[in-house]
């Protein structure tokens, strides 16, 4: 997904107005004629029912937005997993962008969100994941007039960065609170400030805005990820300077420029000027206006976040007098983080809260003032080091894995209050409720008033329904837990109850990211997983189906997990780790490793599911086979297999040498291949134009061959497909409302339940489909 390409369009698109189009999914599946000799069949549609395998959270939530007109209407945005609306009756989040298709996977990254305070049914999303070449498509403004139930889109002439540095600043997208046909968008990459006057349908650059931003995190980064100009980062309206139906006169805009970070217009955006006397040396992450007292508040940091930031300040600007005042909760000398989260209590003017978003140790910090920033109290304080006193209690029993299986020494505690805490909002209708986002969840409280009366507030996860994990691998063993997952950032889980949050992630050892896992087909108690860590260990074994783990040794030079395979009976393993010059094999549980011969480093490895001595590998168009437990591999050149692009393959359980291979790229071979002779020959399935994953599940009633599942393009239609006749015909089992962007990571059926499939997404967690 990270390919090189051209840079975003720049200033040449300055005055371009854009026409909006309907955001739709692929058309209904048309007839397909897959031709795996000698059979011929068709692709049909039969939508399954879909829901998440529950994890609850698992990723960064950089923005929470409450509607200012309607109580309990709130939204959350994620960096790679779309947007959500709060459902008060169920106290859960409802996903809003599941209809995004494969070709628009980049729009699952949400860099900003705006809820219309004039017409609460309207909501807008600024979508796009990367501003560099990793995302081939431009960004878009998605607009909805039914609270996100359906969307229309306007593609922009530049990219947006929902998963780029600076994504916690904002909000970059804003609706005029008096004339809601007017919207502003702060753009990255030097593209400046943009405006729509027709409710987001068309957009044009505000040519009078003088500063497109100057700040880049690392100008030397050739990938374009750290070297992008973070741009125009927030827009705030002064509601006192307008009336219903007329555009708000005074608008404040924040810019990623340490010397010129706040601009203002007093003529509804016709002209702009730098606000005099403003602080310099820092970037303003947020700008929030208290209209009752006439104060504009800024939280600032020396870096763009969300990971970095060593210094910061909080400032107050008196809009009537032009006075700037440093109201930072801590002195510069004591500050070792930047400020970002910022919220004003709309029910109690003068009450505000801010976060030290980059205070990683011993924990994040939240500050509160009830006198417009003159004095502050803190969520926690040091007493006698390393002891701390807390203004809160934290109950994560609803999401128990948030302890991360840690047992830290003071002053650290588990669970943590959070990290990357750039989203912070007090409910504008209820001073008792506050929510904030972290790198792993949404936390909140409903007794915030206790903070000011000497009591403690209760912080709990408010994340049900919001599933944001990036899924690297999935396994559904024939016995034991129905599902084992390999996840980014939080490692993964043994899912014993698909509808319940797992009690804990994989521990002993804990990986930051699990890249691959496997179980022994005839002894599902034996499980292996590999993953990424700053240092060893990067491999772990289990003898009780993933309930408990112990670490294995690893070859010299390992830097990442790569892929791993377990022998059918658990007697040995083959590992292709990152950073080494070889693939490795072992007997037992990895007390020592020996280099395999005949197979290149970095190959994808799998095992035969019947013969414990047989392992397979693939790289750059060549299939490799070992019949001696992975000690030696033999290349089996098979013309027509994909020479480039990602490839995933699996061997069919219970049948020796039966292999299915999916993958490739649009620049070369791409599709689905089948071998029944351990890879000596492969047959490409006709009618399958593209395929990216392959998995197996319980055979259909009366069928002799296990059900096949794939994320593919068949008959010209992208979707999730099932075959019950060994690939002769295919049925699309998802529909246009359930597409989840990119689903090319992993797929597996359930060997115990016919019609049940588990689909990996890149930011929407694990989807479980069941035959209707």
UniProtKB/TrEMBL annotation:
Residues 1-32 form the signal peptide. Keywords: Carbohydrate metabolism, Glycosidase, Hydrolase, Polysaccharide degradation, Signal. InterPro entries: WD40/YVTN_repeat-like_dom_sf, Xyloglucanase_GH74. Gene3D superfamilies: YVTN repeat-like/Quinoprotein amine dehydrogenase. Belongs to the glycosyl hydrolase 74 family. This is Xyloglucanase. It comes from Streptomyces mordarskii. The lineage of its organism: Bacteria, Bacillati, Actinomycetota, Actinomycetes, Kitasatosporales.
């Amino acid at each position: 997904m990270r390919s090189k390409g051209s840079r975003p369009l720049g200033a040449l698109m300055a005055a371009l107005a854009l026409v909006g189009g309907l955001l739709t999914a692929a058309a209904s599946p048309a007839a397909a004629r897959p031709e795996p000799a000698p059979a011929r069949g068709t692709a049909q549609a039969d939508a399954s029912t879909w829901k998440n395998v529950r994890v609850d959270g698992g990723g960064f939530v950089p923005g929470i937005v409450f509607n200012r007109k309607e109580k309990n209407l709130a939204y959350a945005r994620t960096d790679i997993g779309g947007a959500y609306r709060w459902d008060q009756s169920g106290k859960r989040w409802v996903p809003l962008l599941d209809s995004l298709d494969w070709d628009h996977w980049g729009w699952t990254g949400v860099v900003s969100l705006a809820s219309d305070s004039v017409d609460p049914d309207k909501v807008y999303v600024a979508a796009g994941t990367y501003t560099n070449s990793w995302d081939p498509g431009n960004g878009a403004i998605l607009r909805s007039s039914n609270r996100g139930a359906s969307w229309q889109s306007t593609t922009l002439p530049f990219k947006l960065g929902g998963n780029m540095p600076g994504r916690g600043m904002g909000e970059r997208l804003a609706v005029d609170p008096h004339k809601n046909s007017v919207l502003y968008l702060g753009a990255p990459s030097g593209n400046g400030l943009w405006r729509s006057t027709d409710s987001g349908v068309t957009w044009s650059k505000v040519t009078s805005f003088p500063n497109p931003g100057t700040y880049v995190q690392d100008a030397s980064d050739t990938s374009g990820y750290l070297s992008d100009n973070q741009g125009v980062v927030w827009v705030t309206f002064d509601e006192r300077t307008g009336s219903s139906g007329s555009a708000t006169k005074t608008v404040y805009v924040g810019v990623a420029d340490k010397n010129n970070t706040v601009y203002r217009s007093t003529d509804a955006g016709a002209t702009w000027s730098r606000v005099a006397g403003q602080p310099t040396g820092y970037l303003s992450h947020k700008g929030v206006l208290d209209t009752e007292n006439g104060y504009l508040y800024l939280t600032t940091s020396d870096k763009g976040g969300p990971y970095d930031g060593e210094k910061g300040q909080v400032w107050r600007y008196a809009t009537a007098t032009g006075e700037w005042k440093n109201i930072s909760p801590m002195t510069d000398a004591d500050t070792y983080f930047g400020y970002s989260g910022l919220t004003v209590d709309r029910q109690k003017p003068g009450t505000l809260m801010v976060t030290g978003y980059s205070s990683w140790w011993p924990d994040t910090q939240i500050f509160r003032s009830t006198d417009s920033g003159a004095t502050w109290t803190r969520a926690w304080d040091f007493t006698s080091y390393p002891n701390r006193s807390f203004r809160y209690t934290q109950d994560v029993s609803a999401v128990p894995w948030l302890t991360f299986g840690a047992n830290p020494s003071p002053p650290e505690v588990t669970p943590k209050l959070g990290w990357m805490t750039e989203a912070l909002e007090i409910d504008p209708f209820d001073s008792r409720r506050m929510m904030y986002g972290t790198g792993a969840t949404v936390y909140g409280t409903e007794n915030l008033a206790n903070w000011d009366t000497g009591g403690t507030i209760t912080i709990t996860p408010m994340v049900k329904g919001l599933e944001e994990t990036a899924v690297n691998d999935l396994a559904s063993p024939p016995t034991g837990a129905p599902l084992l997952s390999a996840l980014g950032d939080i490692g993964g889980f043994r899912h014993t109850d698909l509808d319940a949050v797992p009690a804990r992630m994989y521990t002993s050892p804990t990986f930051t990211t699990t890249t691959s896992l496997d179980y022994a087909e005839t002894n599902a108690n034996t499980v292996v997983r590999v993953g990424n860590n700053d240092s060893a260990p990067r491999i772990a074994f289990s003898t009780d189906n993933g309930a408990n783990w112990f670490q294995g040794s690893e070859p010299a030079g390992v830097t990442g997990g790569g892929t791993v395979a377990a022998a059918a009976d658990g007697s040995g393993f083959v590992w292709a780790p990152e950073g080494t010059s070889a693939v490795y094999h072992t007997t037992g549980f990895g007390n020592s490793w020996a280099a395999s011969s005949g197979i290149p480093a970095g190959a994808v490895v799998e095992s035969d599911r019947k013969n414990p001595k047989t392992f397979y590998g693939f790289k750059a168009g060549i299939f490799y086979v070992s019949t001696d437990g992975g000690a030696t591999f033999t290349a089996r050149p098979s013309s027509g297999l994909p020479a480039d692009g990602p490839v995933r393959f699996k061997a069919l359980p219970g049948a020796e040498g039966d292999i299915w291979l999916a993958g490739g790229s649009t620049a070369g071979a791409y599709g689905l291949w089948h071998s029944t002779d351990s890879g000596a020959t492969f047959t490409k399935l006709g009618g399958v134009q593209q395929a990216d994953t392959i998995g197996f599940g319980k055979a259909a009633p009366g069928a002799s061959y296990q059900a096949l599942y794939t994320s593919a393009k068949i008959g010209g239609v992208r979707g999730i497909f099932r075959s019950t006749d060994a690939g002769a015909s295919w049925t699309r089992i998802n529909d246009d409302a359930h597409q989840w962007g990119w689903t090319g990571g992993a797929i597996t059926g359930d060997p115990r339940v016919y019609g049940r499939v588990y689909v990996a997404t890149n930011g929407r967690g694990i989807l479980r489909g069941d035959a209707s």
